[in-house]
Amino acid sequence: MKVSRGKPIFNTIISLFLMVSFVLAGCSAGDAEAENGSNVIRIGYQKNGPLLILKSLGTVEDRLEEIGYTVEWNEFQAGPALLEALNAGSIDLGRTGNSPPIFAQAADAPLVYMAAGKSKFKGSGILVPEDSPIQALEDLKGKRIGFAKGSSSHFLLVKALESVGISYDEITPAYLQPGDARVAFEQGNIDAWVVWDPYTASAQINSNARMIVDGEGFTTDRDFFLANKDFAIKHKEALDVVIEEVQKSSEWANQNHDELIPMLAEVLKIDEASIKMSVERRVYGVDELSPEIMEEQQKIADTFYNLDIIPKKVNVQDALIKE
């Protein structure tokens, strides 16, 4: 049975999505042609993840130059804002977690999936203070739990509660972005916190957090590489080059933790011990968009629809490039 309490969540997210999109659209012609006559591919990245590593290594620029493209990098604090820019045509390619694309698709954003990242469920989990009486999922009933609404953590929490027969209505959600949730967690204003690495690792090491479960059995917690649909149709060769270079830089990251850890620690302003924990429990890389992976996405979309968080059914297959 669907409940109605989730609609304000979606309406807030989508209102912000559309407002920012209109602003961004006014600042961009949505054209890949640069003043010097070459093609430009505008890549949106966040301060964590495969595209940050790619940017730091600087390998994709040479590959793209060979086929007549230059690169423009644009930094974003979170996936939803990145997808707003993608919708507005202000960037051409970006990477987010598994849930933001579903919200964007529900808002009819013209995006397409290009590739998937490797599963990283070990770094996502439900945290409680070390001295908390909460020992298992069953103990979360009636508790105040912090997480980012519409995020991969939102989905993880729903599935974890479901596994022990607790409905979403039987907890008190505190919709908080990681920075605010960290403060609330340390001050005891929330009983539990659902989040992803490197925030998970940092809390475990620096805030005496204890993980009661990770994402295993609940979510693969993949990320996805997404493109503006119009750009993807016209410039698929360039996008394919970027994905190839993401894979190469991911292989480098997997094999060179001694260089990767200090590089990420400096950029993210997080201690090396936390970065070490986070990179050692994940594998970087790219997977093709197999039927199994898209079915994972469909289950997330269906879950958010059944909770009335998005207002209509989303078919994730509609956001694939048709060959």
From TrEMBL:
Pfam families: NMT1. SMART domains: PBPb. Keywords: Lipoprotein, Palmitate, Signal, Transport. Residues 1-25 form the signal peptide. Residues 40-256 form the Solute-binding protein family 3/N-terminal domain. It is found in: Periplasm. GO terms for cellular component: membrane; periplasmic space. It comes from the Bacteria. SUPFAM superfamilies: Periplasmic binding protein-like II. GO terms for molecular function: ATPase-coupled transmembrane transporter activity. InterPro entries: ABC_SsuA_sub-bd, Solute-binding_3/MltF_N, SsuA/THI5. PANTHER family: ALIPHATIC SULFONATES-BINDING PROTEIN-RELATED. Part of a binding-protein-dependent transport system for aliphatic sulfonates. Putative binding protein. Belongs to the bacterial solute-binding protein SsuA/TauA family. This is Putative aliphatic sulfonates-binding protein. It comes from Bacillus oleivorans.
